[in-house]
Each structure stands twice: as C-alpha cells, then as structure tokens.
Specification:
The chain is mainly α. The chain has a domain of about 160 residues: Four Helix Bundle (Hemerythrin (Met), subunit A), CATH 1.20.120.530. The protein contains 13 helices and 3 strands; from the N terminus they run ααβααββααααααααα. A hairpin with a 3-residue loop joins strand 2 and strand 3. The protein starts with 15 loop residues before the first helix and ends in an 8-residue tail after the last helix. The N terminus is likely disordered.
C-alpha cells in the first residue's frame, strides 16, 4: 500500500494524525519489502480469480510463480489469512477462501459506513504527498480500460482506496478498512467483466471526483463523492443480499457470469 511518510505538522510540531501516518508508513509491510510485493501479487490474483475460490495453494508452486523466497510467500499467506482471504489449516495446507454473499454484504455495508468518513478525514489531515498519491492513483486508467487490463484497474483501485484510508490519519480505521476493501473488491472484480468501457471510465471519473474534493480540503464534499464512488444507497446492500451464495467450486468465469447477471451494489 502506498502512503506519505511525513510526520510533522505546522511549525514542525508532530501532530497525533501525522504521527499515526508515520506509524502506518513505517510498519512491517513497507511496499519495498519482498514479502509486501508477493502479498500484493497474490492478493491481485485472488481478487481477479486467477487463484480461484477453494483452490489449494502450494507454497513451493507460489515461490516459482512469483519468483520469490519461501519466507516471503509464507509471510504473505499469513497476512492474507488474517484478512480472511485464505484459510490455513495444520496438515491440510492453505486454500483460497470461498466467495460468500453474506461476506460481500457485510463488507459493502462496513465500507459504506467507514470509507466516506475516511475520505472526509483525508481532506482535513492528508499531507501534500498523500494528496498527490490519491490524485495520481488512476493515471493511465483510460488506457487500461481500452486494453481491457483488469489487473491494472484493480491495482489502481486498491492503491486509491488504501491511500485514502491511510491519508485519513486514523490508523485504527485504516487497518480495519483496507482488509474490508479487499473482500469487497473480489466481487466487484467479477462484476467488472460485464461492464463496458463507458461504465468503467465513469467509475474512474467518480474516483477522481473524490480526489478533487480531498485536494480542495472539502471534507463534506469528499464524503459525498466517496458515497457516490462506492454506489452506496439505502437499498444497495439489501439488493445485493438478495442474491444466492456464489458456489465455492465454480471457476472464475462461471462465478463472474452469475455475479454480473444480477443487480449489485457498485464498488469503487
């Protein structure tokens, strides 16, 4: 995840929010570390269904797939297990967590409550570097849409939402929100396969509207823009919750077809 690293407020005074940002930025998962890079690649493969729900993950195969060390793979799987994206069991190994409509309902609902507040906090607390990260998150987005490069679009989306969460300056909210975003994005990524270029570019514009409000230090505007980007309305979560559970044994294309064919909450 990307974040700013400045820890000083006005006149060189270390503020609580700036100190919180520093603690997040300097934590054990700096983006430059191998385990963080492996984590991000496995995460994207899970979100995109390249590692399908229920699939068994062999550590040695992952080492070869991501050209990484065994320790980095194990650390990445440990973090993914804490986030609920994989299941690790003694003697039976690691599997990708199933897709469950109850989980997506809960993830969307929680994101809808927390993330607009984080956007408002980011408009107040973000430093210039963090604002720049948020503003640039979707650079090249239109090219990715034209190429149908869903991996690039999902990576941009993840960086955008993580950057907003961290820029809020509230470490506790950021640590709660980022794993929820990952769960929600698994479902959004399947639905994205059914979206045309115009719909995807409209999503980019909604996200850039959030960034613009944050850059203008407009807290209420950022909150409202994030609500629009998430597609949260009074009945959107209930509408999604009316869908049946997605089978854990289906391949990603089948799951995508089932998910995309029904009404759904929009995910940024």
């Amino acid at each position: 995840m990307d974040s700013g690293s400045g820890a000083e407020g006005a006149a060189g005074v270390v503020t609580p929010y700036a100190a919180a940002r520093s603690r997040v930025a300097l934590h054990d998962w700096s983006p430059e570390l191998q385990k963080a890079k492996v984590y991000e690649q496995i995460l994207l493969d899970i979100i995109l269904g390249q590692l399908a729900p229920g699939a068994r993950l062999d550590e040695q195969e992952l080492v070869k797939r991501y050209q990484a060390g065994l320790a980095g793979v194990r650390d990445a799987l440990g973090r993914l297990a804490l986030e609920g994206l994989v299941i690790r069991r003694a003697r039976s190994g690691t599997t990708v967590s199933p897709l469950d409509i109850i989980e997506v309902r809960q993830a969307f609902e929680a994101c809808g409550l927390i993330e607009p507040h984080c956007a408002a906090l980011a408009a107040i607390n973000a430093d210039d570097e963090e604002v720049a990260l948020i503003t640039r998150a979707f650079d090249g987005g239109e090219d990715a849409v034209r190429r149908r490069d869903h991996r690039a679009l999902v990576a941009m989306d993840q960086h955008f939402h993580a950057s907003v969460a961290i820029a809020s300056g509230n470490t506790t909210l950021a640590r709660i929100l980022i794993p929820l975003q990952h769960k929600a994005t698994r479902f959004w990524a399947y639905a994205m396969n059914d979206d045309g270029p115009d719909a995807q570019i409209a999503e980019l514009q909604r996200h850039r509207a959030v960034a613009a409000r944050i850059a203008k230090r407009d807290a209420e505007g950022a909150r409202e823009a994030m609500m629009a980007a998430l597609g949260i309305s009074a009945d959107s979560v209930n509408r999604v919750a009316g869908n049946p559970v997605v089978s854990t044994t289906q391949s990603p294309p089948q799951s995508a077809a089932i998910w995309a064919s029904r009404p759904r909450a929009r995910r940024g």
